[in-house]
Amino acid sequence: MLRTALRPRFLGLLALMVAATLVCGLLATWQWDRAHRAITSRSEPTDPAVALEDALLLGEPVTNERAGDPVVARGTFDPAEQILVPGRRIDGQEAVIVVSALHVVQPDGGEARLPVARGWMPAADATGPDGEVDPALAPAVPAGEIEVTGLLEASEAATDGVSGHVAQEIATPLLVNEWGEPMYSGYLAQTSAADGLSPMPAAQSAFSRGLDWQNIGYAAQWVLFGGFFLYLWWRSVRTAYLDQRADERARLEASLQPADGPAAPGPTASAPTASDPAASGPAASDPDALAPTPQNPNDPKDVTGVDPDSATTR
């Protein structure tokens, strides 16, 4: 099999597959590095807060490198644009997150909405007499222009919609349908204490919680692709090797057989049939023709059939 692998055709194919594997390895390393940088940057948010316009532009996605960055935004809250997100567990207790829309002035004079998780409250404090979450129990938004400092987070995946100002995720696609657009793609988790609310802890979005499984999954995929390229080369060499062995075996078997094929079995004695001319001649029909001619006693010939008078001594 080694001789088959060392053929020029397979050596060229090996070089191509190795190059493809190296590219996959570089892409896997890049994805792993992105995941590692995102984890380390979120675990140590020591950088000073930057202005929202310097950290995220309207329409840009919140990448894993930006998620968790300290950001400061300035704008005004709309009291009518506020939802509650129950079902969270913070500091060992059931919590409800309060999310409000901050209207941020754009360079062109317009406004864009930035969802702000202003803080959280115990689930018992946000539950009404009927046992359901009551948005009216949440603290009201502050009036006037305000400066909010928090951690930039990516939108969570949207599963359920917004019903009665209650949602299950902090998902900007749902909030766009509820509040309107334009809207930033991420949200701000406020770290400063708000009235009646506890400050948000770091990494409350599913995107930035713990390991970044998305980039880790991409890295694993590139590793699998690289291994698959090498497997294709090995499979091609093995197939060619097995085909060569089969051809050699067929030629060997053909050389061991006679040129005219296998020998036919020899003839066997059989009784004459009626269609045989020798069997259908006069001798076959005349019994006397088959009987021997009697010897004449007066015949001078020897019993051997040789005439004594004609024999001479030489």
From TrEMBL:
Name the segments for region: Disordered: 256-314
Cellular compartments per GO CC: plasma membrane
Q: Where is the composition biased (Low complexity)?
A: 258-293
| Keyword list, A-Z | Cell membrane, Membrane, Transmembrane, Transmembrane helix
Which InterPro entries does the entry mention?
Surf1/Shy1
Task: Report how it sits in the membrane.
Answer: Multi-pass membrane protein
Q: Where in the cell is it found?
A: Cell membrane
Q: Which family does it belong to?
A: Belongs to the SURF1 family.
Lineage summary: Bacteria, Bacillati, Actinomycetota, Actinomycetes, Micrococcales
User: Which CDD domains does the entry mention?
Assistant: SURF1
Q: Which domain of life is it from?
A: Bacteria
Q: What is this protein called?
A: SURF1-like protein
Query: What sections of the protein cross the membrane?
Result: 216-234
